[in-house]
Design goal:
The complex is a heterodimer of chains A (470) and B (886). Chain A is mainly β and 470 residues long. Chain A has five helices and 36 strands. The longest helix of chain A has 8 residues. By secondary structure, chain B is mainly beta. Chain B contains eleven helices and 42 strands. Chain B has a 22-stranded antiparallel β-barrel. Chain B has a five-stranded mixed β-sheet with strand order 1-6-7-4-5. The N terminus of chain B is likely disordered. Classes of the chains: A mainly beta (470), B mainly beta (886). At the A-B interface, helix 1, strand 13 and strand 16 of A face helix 5, helix 6, strand 12, strand 16 and strand 19 of B.
Chain lengths: 470, 886
């Protein structure tokens, strides 16, 4: 009836009669005259039914199949096909239609713009398990066509995992109702299940991603939002991301063998009560001195510096190598702020002469944590031109002499780490002075005697990473 | 829908209403020229029981008399009162009504209930709001000159739309003047903040009309490119060129650079001195006797108002650290200038065919344009802890809102049919909010070792944002009401019934573009805006300049609403001692709102976007005429408050009033309200008093809440709380001070006091929501003030040449934002406003008027745990106007 005419506002491609309205409210919506997107062609020969054939890529002799929208049935991406993302592709609905996206070793998946990104909703899983010889690659169409280079970034959105593990943004007495909106309009995360699993990421590269939705709201390379410790994360790389490499918003997920290269903001960022563990982490800012910020930027929670439970991850064997970028912010080492706690073992922070400060603790609450043992930072080497930045109050009075604090912790060294590239040289103090975190901290950690990400014998980045052999 | 009540059987009523009808017509003509000097016509002498001793007094008394006759609790504000108090528009005038508070100079809060609990009718018709973020019409769009009267009904009656919360404002205009009249008025004004220099940018040549000449519009090349390529990315353009390869990508990037040069970059912001405000109006009305009892009338008026106001504000956002608040965002120095142009035109024709038939048309056009430049200096989350870095954010915000309403209506009395009365109206209205060329960018300021400060535009994908928004609503509203008087012994009855149909469609579109400066070097970015984005810099491939309109969310939406309603009501009047009104309205309501993605496909599930409800809304009112001076009332009703289209559409938008990011919530439900009112009214010769109590129970009240989101991104949305209640007491009075004897009395006789006070309490219970960590689960309603007081002291000289009014208004603190994450609720603090108007009429045809506003120089402050969250310096404003009447 009358409303039928009201909505004749655009060129109408399809008409949907709303049974719920008794049929008299008819809404027409379609691709208002624009000749791109909008309609999804029916599944055709070479692509499985959940995908649609996309334009083939020059010089790549494989079918390209596009996935879009919300995936509500288990699907498997196979390596005989190149996969493309169109818009926000979500695995499952929020805690509904839960499903699993399986990605086979050697699969390449690409996006075309910052609006193309992959989200795993709460309750659903991604099984992206590659092999060292056949890693899974998520990248941009530019890269697929050989048009990306060491300066490229922000060519597509990124990967977002939304889980049901706790975050301190929620009322801890009511975690069942915990729900926080993730950045980039990705969806809600959070919950009461610390053991939640979002699946597995192994031998996975995320290249040239990142997108700023609005200022201070970005898509990271891999966003772990409320991701639980049931999720397996090993051998992942985020390369040349516009924003942070990996960012943890609360959650309990652990990760081993993590490579963060050429990321333009913070390489490892955490907030909101992340309490996971990490071992064997390499951060390298872009050697061409393009934009970079911190190796680690850590918050408890910026809205509530004392929110409980505190962000307090345990990180062992990490090497951070800065660059000479000097722009709106410098390439820096580690910044602990906004009330965070942390346990940092066997860390190397180094970089060229123009690098900014390598270690800083900011906010009174984090300083308190440093003074009462909630921040542990030991058996580590700071090898920088500007090793420390003191904390000062609004009157400029020093509230923490960061260098003195660091030197007072056991096993720490301020001096040369003697690295050859990112691998310690044979005479490096890093080779022997490590803390045996497996024995003394948590047997989740591997047995080590070295400081930094590498023991001088094995280069575990070999074979499955990009951008490290230049 | 509702129409001017006709009182055909009340002894007192007939005379008063007839008199009011004519008196109001005369007054409205005066008001159109903002000329208060016209004394009431001799007809007013026929008004029973109203002694005319002064002009304000007369209109206040007339208003009281009409109020007395209305079967439901209501207030009436005549044009005279509005003009008298120096009010320039409907919004400021309504501040003087019992239990009403004016918020942001735009919306009224009835009995301390937020703007969602008030609704607006224009001559009884539902018209859409040109503010996309709110259901209600910003009342400051209606210039005082076109208003004949404002009727605020605070108790529901079934001829009103069921979407009734705390009050309904009916803005009435007139069509047949009492005599030929021609008025002109000219005025000027100034605000104390304007003694500092303001800021402005080039703009367009028609800005003085409040109309963009196209300079801010989306560039034609860009529109064509969007048609051709869809979302503007190098990949899409390359695909369009035949495939993604290095050559096509290079060409695509070249295209994107060239498109960059199409943007209006002539937006360099310069300091300017501020010109005084100007306003003017002209109106004409005439009546032509066709036969002995048939009259044709015409009324027309034009008004124009241009004003400039400097901005001085502060904004902060806090994190908690234990019991203390620490700023997470701190903009302590916000300055800027707002230019506003208001234009209105009105044309109406009326035809009286004998005393029984009246036809009229009314065409009203309103335009309200705001052009604001805001420069915010301070720290965001990224710089707050870095002593050597700060931000300078620049926002240009241009917004053109228009309303065009065409109405035709009739009132008929069929004497052969036992005086059956029929009123009908058909209104077609169109509103548009056109906001092209809204621009935002941020410079970072970095202190150098040598003490100098290096400032540069952000080097980012998103360094500059341009957005172009256009929202249009079209509505149609048809309604008719009939009334049939019947007499049964001592019982006089009035049977009434009516039908209303309303439909609305909305098309809202926003196109956002950003400038990518990642490839620029910092030295280039340290220039001024037009230098950074010179054609050379944009077109130089080595800078990597790009425009993009990639978004991750739906920006556009289509929505529609339809209401069919009918009612039946009965009035029983027993022996002029007791009157009982009872009735019920049935409404069938349907609403749909569909978010659209960038390529115009439906975002999300369409079934989530439907709201449908049909229900009965009963109302009952009992009036007891205790004696000639005293009457008592009791009223009960069930009504609803429905979420606005915007609030149910999960599309991110920026609230223009708060600058917050807001997203709709598809599952928002309507609020059911049960209201109970009781009131005692006492009418003496020239004074009157009333005392009332009220109670409202709310089921599922809609509250704005802050969602838990990522750091530094304040995101507001809406949720239904479980329940709420509101109860209170209100009193108003009008008293001439002539009761003193001897010489004091002689002098005091020229003065009167009027005012009203409302004291109330509200409480809501709100449950824990996924996604919001509310601090308080029981608290008062958002926006509710525990007390509201309006007091007026008026003076009318004996010869009526001098008139003055001193007006004081205050409201108790009210929740502006509910606290989250252990932070307390944020309260807007009481604002004490004291205004003075004085007018001098040296002759019958001339008036000079002086207005002084905010004499106490109060500021608007929102505090959270005693820390400033938002602060706005209002300044004092002065106005002077001259009116001439022929």
């Amino acid at each position: 009836m009358a409303l039928c005419k009201l909505l004749k506002l655009s060129a109408l491609a399809s008409a949907i009669a709303l049974a719920g309205c008794g049929g008299d409210l008819v809404v027409n919506a379609g691709n208002g005259g624009s000749n791109t997107g909008g309609t999804t062609p029916p599944a055709t020969g070479p692509c499985p039914s959940f995908a649609s054939e996309d334009k083939s890529l020059a010089s790549i002799n494989k079918t390209v199949c596009g996935i879009s929208g919300t995936i509500t049935n288990d699907i498997r991406l196979t390596a005989n096909i190149i996969w493309s993302l169109s818009g926000k592709v979500t695995v499952g609905n929020d805690n509904a239609n839960s499903t699993t996206l399986t990605i086979e070793p050697g699969v390449t998946l690409f996006g075309k713009s910052g609006a193309d990104y992959l989200v795993v909703a709460r309750g659903s899983k991604i099984q992206a398990v590659g092999t060292a010889a056949a890693p899974i690659i998520m990248t941009s169409i530019n890269d697929m066509l050989g048009l990306s280079n060491n300066d490229s970034a922000a060519e597509w959105g990124g990967l977002v995992l939304l889980g049901k593990a706790p975050t301190n943004k929620c009322n801890q007495a009511d975690l069942a109702n915990c729900q926080v909106e993730a950045e980039g309009e990705a969806g809600p995360y959070g919950g009461a299940d610390a053991d939640d699993s979002s699946g597995a990421l192994k031998y996975l590269q995320v290249r040239y991603a990142g997108y700023e939705v609005i200022p201070d709201n970005e898509l990271n390379g891999i966003t772990f939002a409320g991701v639980g410790r049931g999720t397996r994360v090993e051998y992942i790389q985020v390369h040349n991301n516009l924003d942070d490499g990996v960012e943890f918003f609360g959650g309990t997920v652990d990760a081993k063998y993590v490579v963060l290269t050429g990321n333009r903001d913070d390489s490892l960022d955490w907030a909101d009560g992340w309490s996971g563990r990490m071992q064997h982490v390499l951060v390298r800012h872009n050697p061409n001195n393009s934009k970079a910020n911190r190796g680690i930027e850590a918050d408890n929670q910026s809205g509530n510096f004392t929110a409980q439970p505190l962000s307090k991850p345990r990180i062992a064997n990490m090497t951070i190598i800065g660059n000479n970028f000097d722009g709106e912010d410098d390439s820096e080492g580690i910044l602990l702020r906004a009330g965070t706690a942390a346990e940092l073992y066997n860390i190397i922070v180094t970089g060229p002469e123009g690098m900014g400060e390598c270690f800083e603790i900011n906010s009174d609450e984090s300083i308190t944590n440093a003074n009462n043992g909630e921040i542990v930072f030991r058996n580590s080497i700071i090898d920088c031109t500007e090793p420390f930045k003191n904390s000062v109050d609004s009157n400029g009075n020093v509230t923490l002499d960061t260098g003195a604090w660091f030197r007072a912790q056991p096993g720490n060294l301020v001096g040369s780490a003697l690295l050859a590239g990112f691998i310690p040289a044979a005479n490096s103090p890093a080779l022997t002075n490590g803390y045996n975190v497996a024995n003394y901290v948590d047997n989740w950690f591997d047995n080590v005697t070295h400081i930094g990400a590498f023991d001088g014998k094995t280069n575990w980045t070999q074979g499955w990473t990009i951008g490290l052999t230049d | 829908m509702s129409s001017m009540p006709k009182f055909t059987f009340s002894r007192i009523g007939r005379g008063v209403v007839l008199a009011l009808h004519t008196a109001a017509a005369a007054v409205s003509l005066n008001a159109a020229a903002q000329d208060p000097a016209e004394p009431l016509t001799p007809d007013s002498a026929s008004v029973e029981r109203i002694s005319v001793s002064g002009r304000l007094l007369s209109s206040a008394a007339a208003a009281a008399a009409e109020r007395r006759e209305l079967p439901y609790v209501a207030e009436l504000l005549g044009a005279e009162q509005i003009s008298r108090a120096g009010d320039s528009n409907a919004a400021t005038a309504l501040r003087r009504v019992t239990g009403l508070t004016l918020v942001k100079d735009k919306f009224i809060y009835v009995r301390g209930l937020g703007e969602r609990y008030s609704s607006t009718l224009l001559n009884g018709a539902m018209v859409p709001s040109p503010d996309p973020t709110r259901n209600v019409i910003p009342l400051d769009m209606f210039p005082a000159g076109i208003i004949e009267s404002l009727v605020v009904q605070k108790a529901y009656s079934p001829e009103l739309p069921a979407a009734f919360g705390g009050g309904n404002v009916n803005i009435r205009t007139t069509s047949i003047p009492l005599q030929r009249s021609f008025n002109v008025a000219l005025g000027t004004g100034y605000n104390s903040l304007n003694n500092e220099r303001g800021v402005s940018y080039a703009g367009g040549s028609n800005d003085w009309q409040g109309k963009d000449n196209g300079v801010r519009a989306i560039p034609a090349e860009l529109a064509i490119a969007q048609q051709q390529y869809g979302v503007l990315t190098p990949i899409n353009i390359a695909e369009n060129l035949g495939g993604v390869n290095a050559d096509n990508l290079a060409q695509a990037e070249n295209t994107l650079r060239h498109l960059g040069t199409a943007f209006n970059r002539n937006i360099d912001i310069n300091a300017t001195s501020i010109k005084p405000d100007v306003d003017g109006s002209i109106s004409f009305g005439d009546r032509f006797a066709l036969t002995s009892d048939s009259v044709f009338g015409v009324m027309t008026g034009l008004s124009y108002d241009r004003s400039t106001h400097n901005i001085q504000e502060q904004e902060r956002y806090y994190s908690v650290s234990g019991k203390n608040l620490t700023p997470l965002n701190r903009y302590d120095d916000i300055s800027g200038t707002e230019h506003q142009v208001k234009l209105s035109g009105m044309l109406s024709f009326g035809l009286d065919l004998g005393v029984n038939h009246h036809l009229e048309t009314a065409t009203i056009y309103l335009r309200d344009t705001k052009d604001e430049v805001k420069i915010k200096r301070g720290d965001s989350i990224e710089t707050i802890n870095e002593n050597n870095r700060s931000n300078t954010d620049t926002n240009i915000n241009y917004e053109q809102r228009t309303l065009l309403s065409n109405q035709i209506s009739g009132k008929h009395n069929f004497t052969p049919l036992n005086d059956l009365a029929l009123n009908w109206q058909y209104t077609k209205a169109k509103v548009r909010r056109y906001a092209p060329g809204q621009i935002e960018y941020r410079y970072l300021n970095e202190s150098q070792a040598d003490g100098s400060v290096f400032s540069f535009l952000r080097r980012n994908q998103n360094a500059v944002n341009y957005s172009f928004s256009d929202m249009q609503d079209n509505t149609e509203n048809l309604s008719w009401d009939t009334k049939l008087p019947l007499t049964l012994g001592k019982v006089e009855m009035m049977l009434s019934t009516g039908y209303a149909h309303f439909e609305r469609s909305r098309n809202a579109q926003t196109d956002r573009f950003n400038f990518d400066t990642v490839g620029f070097n910092l030295n280039q970015l340290s220039g001024r805006f037009f230098e950074i984005f010179s054609d050379d810099n944009i077109l130089n491939p080595s800078n990597g300049f790009k425009i993009s309109n990639v978004t991750t969310q739906a920006d556009d939406y289509l929505a529609a609403q339809m209401i069919d309603a009918g009612y039946l009501a009965l009035e029983l009047n027993y022996n002029y001692t007791v009157r009982l009104n009872l009735g019920v309205r049935y409404e069938d309501f349907k609403q749909i709102s569909i978010p659209l993605t960038a390529n115009n496909s439906i975002s999300g599930s369409i079934t989530d976007s439907i709201l449908q409800a049909d229900d009965f809304y009963p109302a009952l009112a009992l009036t007891w005429f205790v004696n000639d001076d005293l009457q008592a009332r009791l009223g009960y009703s069930q009504t609803t408050v429905r979420p606005d289209l915007r609030e149910v559409t999960p599309v991110l938008y920026i609230d223009p009033l708060t600058d917050f990011n807001v997203t709709g919530f598809a599952n928002l439900q309507s609020t059911d309200i049960n209201s109970l009112d009781a009131r005692l009214e006492w009418y003496a010769d020239s004074s009157n008093y009333s005392l009332g109590v009220f109670y409202k129970a709310l089921k599922n009240p809609i509250e704005a809440i802050e969602l838990s989101a990522s750091d530094g991104n304040l995101l507001m949305s809406f949720r239904n709380a479980q329940s709420g209640k509101l109860y209170g007491i209100e009193a108003d009075f009008l008293q001439p001070l002539g009761f003193f004897s001897d010489s004091i009395g002689q002098f005091a006789d020229n003065f009167f006091v009027a005012g009203n006070i409302t004291v109330s309490n509200s409480a809501i219970t709100i449950q824990r929501f996924p996604g919001a960590n509310l601090t308080n689960l029981t608290r008062s309603l958002n926006g509710h003030s525990k007390y509201i007081a309006n007091l007026q002291l008026g003076f009318d000289s004996d010869n009526n040449q001098h008139n003055a009014t001193l007006t004081y208004n205050v409201f108790g603190k009210r929740i502006a934002f509910a606290g989250v994450n252990e932070k307390g609720d944020a309260f807007e603090q009481p604002f004490h406003s004291l205004d003075l108007t004085y007018s001098y009429a040296p002759s019958d045809s001339m008036t000079v008027k002086l207005g002084l506003k905010n004499l106490l120089d109060n500021d608007v402050e929102i505090l959270q745990q005693n820390e400033i969250l938002q602060k706005r310096i209002e300044g004092q404003s002065y106005s002077l106007s001259f009116a001439y009447k022929y």
